[in-house]
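Risk register update: the risk that structure generation would not scale has been downgraded. Supporting records follow, first protein first.
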Amino acid sequence: LEAEGLFDSSRKRVLPPWPRRIGVVTSPTGAAFRDILNVLRARYPLVEVVLSPSVVQGVEAPSSLVSALGRLNELADVDLVILGRGGGSIEDLWAFNDEQVARAVAGSRAPVISAVGHETDFTIADFAADVRAPTPSAAAAVAVPDAGELRDHVDQAMQRLTALVED
């Protein structure tokens, strides 16, 4: 995969600064999905989240992950994808080391943030993704701007404009 250029930094895409719709590939019942939703709601509640559910461990997981990514690729208006799951043993995370998963990540129409496991865990999907995040929560934080910071910037701009008009 490395020889084919799937891990090459020159093919990595920049994340959109103002995503409107984020696709999430993970288990619908896992803590990772709840964590992603909580961070997205707190930072940037304007974003729409589309879950493409997948099995994230075990024998069925690689094909399930590939299918879930494929479903998101069929949607024209997904701005980026978060692929993730919480931590676990190397065996629990092994599906993210699958060649077909790596190819699906690299071939995604939208940029992909890989957020598999915890900070010290690395998988092949991380190297194929456009961005690697150390946790699912961190992926959500990287994916969107902070609405509080945006409000501060708007307030500062309004103050500058008001000062200019009053002069």
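Supporting record for the second protein:
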Amino acid sequence: MKECKYCLYNSNHPFGLTFLNQKCSGCFTHYEKYKLNWTERLEVLRKEVQLAKKNSKLYDCVVPVIGDAEDYYTIQQVLMLGLNPLVISVNSYFYNDIGWENLHNLIDHFDLDSWVYNPEKQTYQELIRTSL
């Protein structure tokens, strides 16, 4: 069994970590953020955004959401880049009233166009059952 000398996770970790020189793949990924030139990467993103805006007709991008806090942050960042997103969600048939309210609040808060895909319930349930 291999063990990371930095975080002490071992090769039995459920994420299936790989190891190189006694350092796990999780630590490689974590420390990579300190080596990146974030200003340069933001400029690359802005160029990609301008290209997307130039080639789009109605929406510049599609953003999948479920209505949680991370979605508010993501949408805020997309809008700060000047993109016009189409917000999409898949009805998982697991939302309660609060879940639906959260999703609608997100859409209303940012005044976005949205689309909710409603797969056939029996097919969706079978896919979930099979994937578990």
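The two ends are 28 Å apart (CA to CA). On this basis the risk owner (M.S.) recommends closing the item.
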